[in-house]
Here is the input.
Amino acid sequence: MTLTRAIFPALIALAGAGCSTDPAIQRGAEQGARMTVELRSDLDAVVRAQDALYEERMKNAVTSMNEIYSEKQRYRLVEESRAFARTSANKAPAQVAGAVPDFMTQSMRDWRQRHRDYEAVLARARSEYEKNRQTVRVDKSKLEAMRTRFVALSDSKSRTDSVKFLVGFAKEVRAEIERQEKAGQGKASDTPSQ
Here is the structure.
């Protein structure tokens, strides 16, 4: 995000200033706090868009999976019925009548097993979906922690722990920017960045 790039120099400047009580540092902290609020708003928009995208993708995936599952179940039942009919073609009616309950029982067992397999695949897909949704929310909490530190830094004299926090966060931001730039140079992905 370009706003992340804009905050990065402010973080470095604040970190470099150490524990100074210079009004310029306090103004920089105020600006950093305002920028984090803007970034938070942008991040909220990204989260909403990403959630909508995930919801749509999950809905489409489930619809496709249901269609495939339904077709597979019907196909397998038809194939099992045809196989039973082929094997029963040369048998006496009494033998066929005796085999029908076993055929029905086995067909239902197979149906239930395919259904359990399908439910397991669907559960894994939903689990992956939820795991992906939570990634951005973790970043939002870090952003809120950064805003709180900026506010504390701008409201009072600089504190060593606030500066240390900002230095650490600046390093995280820089690493994330470099990671995203490297990822952008690699193959394109159709999923949003985090």
Observations:
- The chain has four helices and no strands.
- The radius of gyration is 30 Å.
